[in-house]
Amino acid sequence: MLDVRKIRLILELRELGIANSDVLSALETIPREKFIPENYRNQAYENIALPIGDNQTISQPYIVAKMTELLDLRNNHKVLEIGTGSGYQCAILSKLARRIYTIERVKNLHDKSLNIFKELKLTNIVSKYEDGNNGWVEQIPFDRIIFTAATENISNKIFSHIKDDGIIVCPIVRDNRQVLIRYEKKNNKLVSKEFDDVLFVPNLKGIN
Ligand code: SAH
Q1: What is the value of pTM for the model shown?
Q2: 204 touches ligand 1 (CB under 6 Å)
């Protein structure tokens, strides 16, 4: 049953413009239902965001695919994710890069995602319970950084944690909307390009 829905979802993502076949195979490989509370599991392969508890959501598959595609990952990349949430986006990244460092500020979500990573044997993910806005200093520099909560701007601190030619993908709050932006660090400057309008939970300071 889930398999038919999964195939339909992959076709839908293609139609929506996701062209990178490695990204699509990662979405085919990772069981999204594992990251979703039981009462929503029958909707795991619908192209919608779903609640994961603690007032947070697992993003829509299209947005996960789009953000992953924008990161332009290589299998030797070291990636930082700010906002583990359910861990789904992170699991997708783990199939396409060498190592993912992921930070979550809600203890309960951090703990739950650790268990799923273990169950799925995703051994190239390293997780931390902290305010992700501090980055992961022991591991800098990163090839790629992804924010999965809406942020006002990229701080100088985070900017300094990415390599030259590195990419940051982030939902940015702009007036009354949020826009998905891809930043490339070129000659120590960020060059930005706007993509889809999105709706993410806010990036919050401190831990919970
Ligand atoms: N990538 C997730 C969805 C993200 S929801 C998934 O696939 O399920 C965004 C997450 O970012 C939430 O869990 C929220 O608690 C977390 N978050 C918000 N601000 C944060 C911060 N400053 N540091 C770390 N995590 C943060």
Answers
A1: 0.97
A2: yes
